[in-house]
Amino acid sequence: MSSSPTAPADLDRTDPAGAVAAAAARVSNWGRWGPDDVRGTMNFLGPEQRRAAAALVRTGESFSLSQSFDMDGPQKGWRRRTNPVHTMLDTGTDAVAGVQGFPHGIGGADDVISMPLQCSTQWDGLGHIFDHGVAWNGRPADQVVTSLGDGVTGIETVADVVCGRGVLLDVGRAIGDDGELPDGFAITEEHLRHTIEAQGPSSVVRRGDLVMVRTGRLARARREGWGEYAGGDSPGLSFTTADWLHGSEIAAVATDTWGFEVRPNEFDVAFQPLHQVAIPHIGLFLGEMWDLDALADACAADGRWEVFLTAAPLRITGAVGSPVNPVAVR
């Protein structure tokens, strides 16, 4: 088994395939929870962790960690992803005009929304990424996700379990200038450990945690405009954090960026190689485009970086990802 690279300089930029294969061999969780497992690292998050997380609530202050779902969102059509289209089916105008056809004066409003499931704050499910045609737990991808959807690891399989201790690692505040990291900044295990040390004991990462990594990229997009926020260059986790993501035994990790890992990727020619290891091999759930700014300010104000976090995906049968409105309670 090859040794683990600890910094981007340790990577052979010309060999992403070799790096992915070596990392997959080191961190694979295939078979860890049996051949039929569909929940991957969510197996680390159980009733014991949830009971402990509930005890973290002190003030009852709550924060939505979701961006808006509307036409003013970040999408520009990359990979056919568009912003949500919200259409009214019935309105107050219809009610006043008396055209709704209801008796005794009752009226109402109804609406519909059309959107890609990963156009704003969302989870990547275990059917979202494959490695050489193989999905989570070593299953052939064509036996998992078909035109009918993900019939094995659909996002609905974790709809009742994504609730526990959330830990915010504000790397942007700990490492960056003015609380933000520049595009292309690769967050290493050393940066994560430095952030934990700087923030104190409440940010120590434990088994089953839902880890949130703030880079400041969303704050910059809101100040300067969306630009290439959705699909372009960005700070993010280094490929070299694969071993930390595996060894920490976290249930999930989420960032305030569109793609979780650093962009451009750390190889001459590559596309999201950390996804290629984290999802199909570690079985790790990835959250993207989370809004962590207000929570980060509150945590920095009193030095408490752990919260009770609930972030259930929508129960969309067979989906490989899901919109989510995470709520952190302090």
From TrEMBL:
GO biological process, any: L-tryptophan catabolic process to kynurenine
Signal peptide residues on this chain, from the entry's feature table: none
Membrane-spanning ranges: none
Protein name (record): Putative cyclase
Domain of life: Bacteria
Molecular-function annotations in GO: arylformamidase activity
